[in-house]
Amino acid sequence: MPAATRADEGAGLGRFALLGVWAVVVVVFSIAMPGVFFNWNNFAVLAGSQAPAALLALALVIPLTSGDYDLSVGAVVTLAAMIIGVLNVWHSVPIGWTLLIALAAGITVGAVNAFFIVYFRIPSLVVTLASASLISGIVQWLSNSSTISGISPWLVDVTVNGRLFGIDFAFYYALAATALLWYVLEYTPAGRRLLFVGRSREVARLNGINVDRTRSASLLASSCLATLAGVVYAGTLGSADPFSGTNFLLPAFAAAFLGATSIIPGRFNAWGTFVAVYFLSTGITGLSMLGIPLWVTNVFNGGALLAAVTLSQFARGRQETDLG
Amino acid sequence: MNSGVGGIAASLAGCLAAAAFAGADPAAGVAHARQMIEAHQTKPVFTAPGAPFDARACAAGRKMLSIPNNSGNPFLKGIIEREIAAGKEVGLTVQEWQNQGQPNQWTQGVDFAIRNHFDIIDLISGIDPKTLEPQLRAAAAAGVKTMTSHFYDPAQAVDPLVAASLPVNFNAVGKLLADWVIMRSGGRANVVLVESDEVPPTAPLLRGFADEIAGFCPACRIVQRVNVGVTEWAVKIQPSVQSALLANPDVNFVVPIYDSMSQFVVPAVHLTGRQSGVKIATFNGTPFVLDYVRSGAVDMDIGESLDWIARATVDGYLRAECGLPVPKNIGVPLYLFDAGNVKDAGVPAGYDQGYGGDYLQGFRSAWKLR
After folding, report:
1. Do B244 and A288 touch (CB under 8 A)?
2. Residue-wise pLDDT tens digits, B295-312
3. CB 3.0 to 4.6 Å from A263: which of A237, A271, A323, B124, for a disulfide?
4. Does position B50 have pLDDT exceeding 60, yes or no?
5. How high is the pLDDT of residue B241?
């Protein structure tokens, strides 16, 4: 059998491997905790509480697809949440306006990132590392390094108080964002352009794609989605603090890379990332419920990522990927 | 009754009661807990940390460098800002060594103090002197005294390089948290503890909590302990507490031992739909958590006035610097905020409101200021 065909078959099986492992994890925890782990309430809580993490991971998928890193998304989450907190709680600005201002701030960050990356040709890793630090400083200045509670109940209502089938609305926002991103990446010319630019900027340029515009759009979209993650995060907590959003950056990268082993193996993709976020959080939830010390969850996260990527590559005949 | 003295008396009574309690009925434990709580819900009254002394004469020409473990921490920043203000009152120059929590910045700060002939290095409530041993040795050799405040528990050994320490009775904080839990649950608490074991005050605080539960609440149970490192609070507290609540339907109290953890505990309780059955009790008196108390999301928060801490620190350090006896304890009263008194902390809550102003005149008298 030709090598390429074997690899294709491996990829065909591999695309659902993560889902299979997820099912095994659920079964193992359900047996270990009969009547406790496998119930609707547990999964409903898990679904809602992981929505900000899912949105952040999706935000990373866009620039990763077009070949750029955006390390500022975690800081944008914090910026959006803190703008809402400062304006709504401290200055009594109506919540609707604070959301618009937060979105404008997020778009500005994306535009600034794009300007330095595309116009000055500075690597995205460097620019977004710098902008993350810059935003972090601005957020501390804005908030006087304080945590702000008492964000409008309306935002809390439309994220975690409102429920459909017992699951917080926040989950459906993440689900809708996943479906939209999947559609755009798979079925629109814009999505295809992102992929081509990510695979080879030179080839894309020779084929008539405006590479700079495509990369800029991906960075703007990434910041917008990170802002949405920040809004949902603020609604989930009902508060904002100047530091915690950045802590989600590395788990989001882990989910994006793990997601790239699933559904469309070898490519960053929306559904794979969505599955990865919930696979990892299922593992962590189960371990926590068993009362296992929390350092084990770090081992689980790292081990799962490494194992999944390795197995995926093995199944694909160790082909080169565009995962960086 | 003076609340500080009242607290000590209640603690002593507690120790004696614990010895006699084993096997007694739960109602007696609840009564004991109520007595302890009431002792900490009267407005704090100032107790002089020692004999009055001429603070101006003592402070004249002296300089202190305060090094927080992170200038982004509003609790520490708040104390240092108030130390600077208190220093101005007595003529002590207080400067902050701003940093972002990196140990190499702390070593730089110690070096700065040595080169610029400061008299005191103030490791305020955070940096473990063990992490700066070579630098603090050099400071001692250069005649710069290192002092700590609001860091050790009285039962903990003070690092030999520390010239003076103003400890806080974290063990008593743990006992008070347990007393609240015992009282509010009617002696039938099932508790999830949220802790950060790498922070030095955690051990004495948890010991106090466990001892009080063991001594006064035979039907209470610590169902699960969730240990989350400070840098991982945002990522791990919420899912871990959610899991603990889902796995243990009989839990009726979550105790995040440092109140900033509440930001992640409150949504966990909310998301699991357990607001009506699960109460939260915590410690620190951080304003946003006092706002949670006002809204009903948190049941109780044990607070300390930052201004009081700052003045007690300046007082204790000056006494040490001028060869006077140093108080054995920082002496800042613990005051419990619940739904009944939290409005005194302000709307929105502030750091120094609700504790009364008795201490301001108290320190002026202790420092012989007009």
Report:
1. yes
2. 999 999 999 999 999 999
3. A271
4. yes
5. 96
Q: Does the beta-carbon distance from B288 to A36 stay under 8 Å?
A: no
Per the CB < 8 A criterion, the answer to whether B36 and B179 are in contact is yes
Of B300 and B104, the structure prediction assigns the larger pLDDT to B300
- Residue A49 has its nearest CB partner, among B71, B271, B289, at B271
Q: Report angle CA A180, A186, A189 to the nearest 5 degrees.
A: 100
Supply the Cα-derived Rg of chain B in whole angstroms: 21
Q: ipTM, 2 decimals?
A: 0.76
Residue B113 · residue B122 · CB < 8 Å: no
Q: Per the CB < 8 Å rule, is A237 touching B77?
A: no
- Is residue A144 within 8 angstroms of chain B, CB to CB? yes
* This prediction's pTM: 0.83
Which tokens sit at A25?
């994890």
Cβ A103 vs Cβ A81: under 8 Å:
no
What tokens were used for B104? Answer: 């190499």
Q: What percent of chain A has pLDDT over 90?
A: 64
| DSSP letter for each residue of A69-121 | --TTHHHHHHHHHHHHHIIIIIS---HHHHHHHHHHHHHHHHHHHHIIIIIS-
Q: Can you name the CATH fold of A16-314?
A: ABC transporter involved in vitamin B12 uptake, BtuC (1.10.3470)
Per-residue tokens: A30:
């359900």
What region, left, alpha or beta, does residue B150 occupy, with left being phi > 0 and alpha being psi -120 to 50 degrees?
Answer: left
Q: Over the stretch B126-172, which tens digit does the pLDDT of each residue have?
A: 888 988 998 999 999 999 999 999 999 999 999 999 999 999 999 99
pLDDT digits (tens, 9 = 90+) for A225-245: 999 999 999 999 888 988 888
Taking CA–CA distances from A235, the nearest residue in chain B reads B267
What residue in A sits closest to B264 (Cα-Cα)?
A237
Provide CATH 3.40.50.2300 ranges for chain B: 10-40+170-303, 55-167+306-328+355-366
